[in-house]
Amino acid sequence: MLKIKLFTFNPFQENTYILYDENGAAAIVDPGCYESEEQEVLRSFILSENLNPQLLLNTHCHIDHVLGNAWVKRTFDIPLLIHDKDIAVLNSVKAYASNYGFHKYESTEPDGYLSTDQDIQIGDEKLEVRFVPGHAPGHVVFYHKESGVCIAGDTLFRTSIGRTDLPGGDHALLLEKIKSELFSLPDDTIIYPGHGPVTSIGFEKNNNPFVGKNAKF
Q: Which InterPro entries does UniProt cross-reference here (predicted)?
């Protein structure tokens, strides 16, 4: 059984996730923890649950999702995996981080790359990698079939979708990929987004104004 712990960090109110199995093997997804107080919240949970972090995963590499990358890598000595089409996105963060007030941002390099022909193993649990670009050129989501959950980053939100006006964004492509890669999942699949509350595939099919059955875009 896959367990999921959600934290909301930084001024962007970004959702950071810890995914872990029954034996404590864990992956940290999109660490938005920037301030030391936020880092301590994440670290304290890992220690209190006796977790063993093994992987650091980015759904994509916009600033709000990678603020804690360097700290997580250093603290837990684990590799960072991203999609190779988001390398430029990750590398660009250092140039503009101070514009958003993140003067202490530390850049870090990926240790490997995600692709859709692989599964990610977290102890006894397996995540399917699905490629859903449009919000970012290398955006992926992580689907756990047995639990019926998807860590969706900034692709699909409750009654909304990821913005596509940032460099590398593509509105038409995002709509297409949501329909082919996310709406092909069972309706009861729970979506854990990069911001805001959880939702489900079935709810978004019926209610999302961008990609739902009554979409006007």
A: MBL_Glyoxalase_II, Metallo-B-lactamas, RibonucZ/Hydroxyglut_hydro
